[in-house]
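Notes continue from the previous slide.

Worked example: a multi-chain complex. Inputs as given:
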Amino acid sequence: MTVVDLQQAPATQLHSGQRIVNDFSFVVATTNGTGSQTSNNTLLRALFKMGVPATGKNLFPSNIYGLPTWFYIRVNKDNYRAHRSQAEVLVTYNFDTFAEDIAALPPGGVCIYPMDAPSGKKKWNVVTPSRDDIYYYRIPVDELTATMNPDQALKEYIANMVYVGAVAYLFNIDMGEIERALSYHFGGKAKPISMNFGLVKLAYDWAKDNLQKIDPYWCEAMPDATFTKDKIMIEGNAAAALGAVFGGVQFVAWYPITPSSSVAENLQSYLADYRHDEEGRATYAIVQAEDELAAIGMIVGAGWAGARSMTATSGPGISLMAEFTGLAYFAEVPAVIWDIQRMGPSTGLPTRTSQGDIIFTHFLGHGDTRQVVLLPANMEECFRFGWEAFDFAERLQTPVFVLSDLDLGMNQHVSSKFEYPERPMDRGKVLTAEDLQKLGGQWARYKDVDGDGITYRTLPGTDHPNAAYFTRGTGHNENAGYSEKVEDWHNNLKRLAHKMNTARELLPQPVIQQNKGAKIAIVSYGSNDYAIQEAIDYLKARHDLSVDYLRILALPLSPKVGEFINGYDRVYVVENNEEGQMAQLMRMDFPQKAPDLVSVARCNGMPLDAEWILSQVLERK
Amino acid sequence: MTVVDLQQAPATQLHSGQRIVNDFSFVVATTNGTGSQTSNNTLLRALFKMGVPATGKNLFPSNIYGLPTWFYIRVNKDNYRAHRSQAEVLVTYNFDTFAEDIAALPPGGVCIYPMDAPSGKKKWNVVTPSRDDIYYYRIPVDELTATMNPDQALKEYIANMVYVGAVAYLFNIDMGEIERALSYHFGGKAKPISMNFGLVKLAYDWAKDNLQKIDPYWCEAMPDATFTKDKIMIEGNAAAALGAVFGGVQFVAWYPITPSSSVAENLQSYLADYRHDEEGRATYAIVQAEDELAAIGMIVGAGWAGARSMTATSGPGISLMAEFTGLAYFAEVPAVIWDIQRMGPSTGLPTRTSQGDIIFTHFLGHGDTRQVVLLPANMEECFRFGWEAFDFAERLQTPVFVLSDLDLGMNQHVSSKFEYPERPMDRGKVLTAEDLQKLGGQWARYKDVDGDGITYRTLPGTDHPNAAYFTRGTGHNENAGYSEKVEDWHNNLKRLAHKMNTARELLPQPVIQQNKGAKIAIVSYGSNDYAIQEAIDYLKARHDLSVDYLRILALPLSPKVGEFINGYDRVYVVENNEEGQMAQLMRMDFPQKAPDLVSVARCNGMPLDAEWILSQVLERK
Amino acid sequence: MGRTKTNELGLLAADYNGRPSTLCPGCGHNSISNQIQQAAFEHSLDQHFVVKMSGIGCSSKTPAYFMGRSHAFNTIHGRMPSVTTGVMLVNHHLKAIGVSGDGDTGNIGFSQFKHLVRRNVPMVYIIENNGVYGLTKGQFSATADYGQKTKYAGKNELPAIDLCAEALLADCSFVARSFSGDAKQIRSLLRAAFSHRGTAVIDIISPCVTFNDAADSTKSYFWGKEHREILNEVGFVRGQEDIAVDYEEGKSQDVQLHDGGWVRLKKLDESHDPTDRTSAFRVLEQARKEQVIITGLIYIDQERATLVENARITDTPLVNLPEDQLRPSKATLDQALSELFG
Amino acid sequence: MGRTKTNELGLLAADYNGRPSTLCPGCGHNSISNQIQQAAFEHSLDQHFVVKMSGIGCSSKTPAYFMGRSHAFNTIHGRMPSVTTGVMLVNHHLKAIGVSGDGDTGNIGFSQFKHLVRRNVPMVYIIENNGVYGLTKGQFSATADYGQKTKYAGKNELPAIDLCAEALLADCSFVARSFSGDAKQIRSLLRAAFSHRGTAVIDIISPCVTFNDAADSTKSYFWGKEHREILNEVGFVRGQEDIAVDYEEGKSQDVQLHDGGWVRLKKLDESHDPTDRTSAFRVLEQARKEQVIITGLIYIDQERATLVENARITDTPLVNLPEDQLRPSKATLDQALSELFG
Ligand SMILES: Cc1ncc(C[n+]2csc(CCOP(=O)(O)OP(=O)(O)O)c2C)c(N)n1
Ligand SMILES: Cc1ncc(C[n+]2csc(CCOP(=O)(O)OP(=O)(O)O)c2C)c(N)n1
Ligand code: SF4
Ligand code: SF4
Ligand SMILES: [Mg+2]
Ligand SMILES: [Mg+2]
């Protein structure tokens, strides 16, 4: 990049004069730890309150301070909420990535950047952008910030409000809503609100006085639209935690790991708010364990003792939990494990999203182990599985993994208000002392009385002389006695397989979307949903191609998945990992249809986007 | 079982008078920790030296003392060496399993049992066997043992020699060979040899004087047969260890676990014998780690530093090694991990064999990890992979898992003498200081220079200013620098996938056995080989069914497997686990042929047997 | 008397039996099992509210051999502490008796052990310490003596970990040591431990008859040369009678093990103040120097808050709370949602 | 001078630089990186024979920021000890500098740490101890002070693990403690550690600017109420200047941290005999009682055999042995086979 002294940015008028309204994306390039999240969320929230569907994606580095961060805000009047990899409007405070950020803009794109040094460290005033086919606006970040006289320590933080003001002016974002958003952010505290909003207004006014709107992008309030009406904004990890609180979670053990920590941290704060008895005693316990081996061990212990227990982790933690979840599978102990997936292998990219743990988690544990997996796709399902996972775990007496991902977990998403659980808790087959009394003390821990593969258990502390049994990860007979007998082993494993078949029907069934006459279909799961919905619309609209769609909600796979795929010439299995892991699992479970499954898989740290899916379907017809 | 005083066992003469020679099985029922292994191996070895193919399988419990143990010896003149689940001749000292052991005999079977109490604990003298369609011989174990005047502590141990003598007489086993076998066992030490052989002879003579041979089973020396000529007897774990010693293993770290401990223990003793320099300093190091996490960590460190390093473990250890092997896969560090498979899930049955870790190990590590796996089928391959695994690990710069099993690892098998490695060690792509000098210091750790996906590494301690690089489990670019860039991530993962494709060709290729005109085939791997060979012979001989056979030696699967299976109407994938795990992997890799794969899988702790395989093939035509 | 005597719950000693042991005859662990069930009987422990917790090993199997009316969880190797932590937090009315081995606790489970103790999880934590891995046939554990030799594992070149000192350093609130043959001492320590609120660690030297068999180990039996010559396979186990000792507080006693080996035990007396942490350290350090095994109650802190207390949970154990205390109302959900941006 | 001075290898201080740090400005870890490279320069360490080992955490990232000409292995969380053990056994000519955090060492890696020390693996083991998990945003680690509060993690109800005492109890042969701001002391301890044969543990209190920010922590900065009101998100990090201290042996010094918090440091003097293990324990126990951070060389044992020595390996590092020393001859194989039954 040539460095010259340049007071004015080039501002060639390029667009045809047509306004592009509520259908473009912003990207805000900053560095992490500088407080830009407040500004970004403020913009997002203001748009949301204007009735404009807006989706935010935070692309942040795996450190604490000073490395590049990008925040994407997609504005879309049709309520498409998937990530778009192309942003038209760049706001940047990050000198280090300026060149690549500029290069990524489409022709006719917009770049907003400082004319002085917001952090006092970089020479924005001597930079020449490398392209002349985009619109530029320059803003005096430092100067305006200084006007507020902020505490030196807070200067960098406050400075972000300058772009909020400029963007509000340039793209017509409601200042009232911005104030509301800030007020929400600062919990109504007058001082920070006035300080921050003061600077927003200053910047807004400066922009109004000094900038000429030359680009075609506009936001417009959609007062009649229902996309955001009665909706909330929340992160998936908070939704999961809230769900668990309403699932009656009794015990949480965890070990910090990005991007799952906020599940536990939200649990901590929601539990503190909502789960005490009249005397203020907690109806839950939460432990930060010394590592993941201990976290999973604790929840297995708590689950065995009869509590609804959970942990949250990410890839490396899943690896470390293999031995214990194998035990829980075989000894039939309920437990709920949230895996907020990030990019692997290994430590990988801790702050990038992926769906890479599907196969590994489903088979987690040596020696013929199969784990139950739930696959939430949105905030509603994060909340729902938050409570429902306990029902499944206790009903099936097995670990239940909920595979969310960083995209769902750590981004703000618009959501319907969560529905209160529609049925009482299912605590599964537990025999009390009274039950045992009635049975004359006759029962066997691993005997399949009901024919569903699920047996009865007692909890420690059951006051009956026949209540006790011996729990073990070694081979056992129906009475939980140690056994090396071939028949005992076989019966037990057959029953476990049968239980997994029960699970196939019990677990959430796939969501199916069918049109008459479609010959091809997409199968997918989890956070890909937004992009797939959009891609299906485009395939119809642009290419007149009808595509049906099945979204998997759980593993082991429902027989409905098999029935569905049998109806199509070709089935595209779309997912966000390298291997095409779900396609692999489907090949295993539905070998007859394996030849017609097309794996559409990619993993680059970003959520999938509609254009890419569309192109894959078209390419591989 | 009725208990009466009975001096004579029923001895109905049932057989037609035809002798059944060298084609039947013994089972010796004792309790563990009583020293019966010496006796059993003595019989096995004597048969071997008589030229009679004999295969031993030890079925022992997961404790140290006093629980039921069965030792099977299959005698087969045609050299079929698979396990047979049916034994015709029972020798028992175990009162507790007497009833079930008797019940398991075929009509016309033989039962040899004490007439007094060998351990002084059980009332053998008052027992009535429950069947009258078998032959009985009773032997005065206690009385004969007492004659030798053994140290009280050794009585139980020595008493086992009584059945050796009786069996030798009844079934015509060469006493000279028995003495030789004992002499081998006791390392030539005169005192124990004479003590033990003395009792064998005493029992032999007693039997000669007191027992009338009434059953049809006979052993006969086969002086002209070549099945045992020039052969050795060895356990797979010893073969593996010996192989590793000749593979130049430099570092071993391990944590005890059945059935893998004897890999390390054999290593320890072989290394002590054969791997010191002139001054008696070790050319290796071996560490008993504090757990499997440390064991794998140590060998990853050693592999990174440039040493041939290995560990041996079993299922639970594999679970615990998931995180580290994911790191090694991604950071591209060589290491060799032997998994002597036992029955899972969880702690399962530690002393029973299985092939249950195939899928889990192949995908070991969260987030799109793929591991290289070798699958030895016999002693020759245990030895061979013992050294060759290092070549593959260093060539591919990745962990190499060798999946043996308890059947191979802990039983004595007849084997050809091992061949000395036919090529020098392949230490892989390592740049020395001189290499770097020549390159002018220009190199990049993760750059695919040769187009095979395998890149060059330097070792710590390379005396060149450009040698160093930074090894990490996080996303990295070609220069091993931390990178969150999409392109860097993609390029790296694509290269890793490419490397795995290189592996498909580099690793041992499948062993194929084809007959003209066969329409069906069996695919299998590992220790199933013996049973499959036998089943194929029977299918031809008894049912005139031609069956071809491919034995997989490595994962990821060779393209040859795909080519092979394309040639058949139906392919039976035979294996010793619950899920049919190899069938699943084949469905993944060869979806076009998935509909024609038939999974033939069973896991009951015993090696597969020919009759069962045969029945499965016939049933599922 | 004896056999027909009942305790406060009206139970016979036999009501505290478990299944027959499948350990080697003479294994120290069997003596400990006997004392656990005897102490439980004497203490009138209600078995229905006891959980027996263990890892993996010969020692970890023993919960099957005592108190058959109690729930038990034989978990995985080295991880009993975390499982017990979970159990006790969700049901603090239970009494947890954990049994572990020196390998289970000092090797693979070392971190869990230390962190459990640090958290002061209410439980009795018994280590049946033989310096070897019994179940996997005699390899050294981290508590093996420096320089110790066994015929299966050769010579140990590493210093022994002292699990009492480790517990103490991790702020353990009850630290004791005993010897498997000292029935009376074990029983009285167990009864004290049963009454303790926090983590009570009892490290019991418990010789492995089968594998820890060289003369120069503080935890061993000695087998003569003669025997070794004959027995060159692990497959043979020579059963033994239990060892029993009984000696006074403040005294030391040299105990001859079956095969000639000796251990020197020294029982703490009243001059030792078990509430003084510094002096507890000193006593252990002294014993280390003198190569004796100090037995008795080494340290106790009755004040330290337990993990359960710190959790400030309901008096009713969490597992016994009814649904309406676990699932907040619809109104609460509405409240929570209203606090979100929306 | 300074910048152009060369050491015995003819290298400039700058030759020991690494990549620019990506830690928070003012993070104690940065000061330590500087001292490591400075000490390495002064000590004329040959970087080609140094390996920089680490786990995961802000601290564990730092090997990227010093000595760019040395190989480095940034392993996985808490497992640096085992990896380093493997490295040093196969190439004992290397010098290993391990960097870990308190979470990495005291929590997830606790067992590996203790067992490494017990084995006396030749290496310098630096703990950059801030009482919190920096990289995952401020949760307490096991070294957090009892009762400590931070705005992100609330109040810590558990006793702190003292990693020096833990090392000592595990028979560590070199135990030292320092403070990230004490450049001179760190350098001299590092140079002593570089010369030590076995495991040299240096626990360096290294405040986390960003998360350990309540006044009542011995490892913390204090942020005023005012600030907290404005900043309710973790997303903002306030950079700071490094703290520097410099004081005499035997003296104590109260160090004011940027935001008002204090720590009291006390430097050991010559009256402390670092070869006396009992007195080392006493010094640590005393400091614990007085709530001061004792700094300096706490314990050293120059005699204890290292793991490498116990392994009795060739003088040539194993990795440098040629094929003919690694693969025995065909005759040896024949010999081995002939000893099998056959
Ligand atoms: C993860 C794992 N690794 C290894 C083993 C094998 N194993 C079983 S018991 C045991 C050692 C037991 O030693 P200790 O705890 O001292 O008990 P002891 O048998 O001596 O009473 C080992 C290593 C296992 N079961 N699980
Ligand atoms: C197995 C695993 N669990 C959790 C994490 C997440 N994690 C990364 S760093 C860290 C804590 C680091 O704390 P510390 O060692 O004290 O280093 P600091 O950042 O404070 O310097 C954690 C929990 C991980 N990377 N791997
Ligand atoms: S092997 Fe040792 S520890 Fe295990 S049961 Fe036998 S004597 Fe006891
Ligand atoms: S978060 Fe704390 S430990 Fe991490 S770099 Fe910042 S100041 Fe240092
Ligand atoms: Mg033990
Ligand atoms: Mg820290």
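Summary box: Residues A 255-257, 292, 316-317, 320, 347; D 56-59, 77, 101-104, 128, 130, 132-136, 141, 208 surround thiamine diphosphate (ligand 2) (CB under 6 Å). The longest strand of chain A covers residues 23-31.
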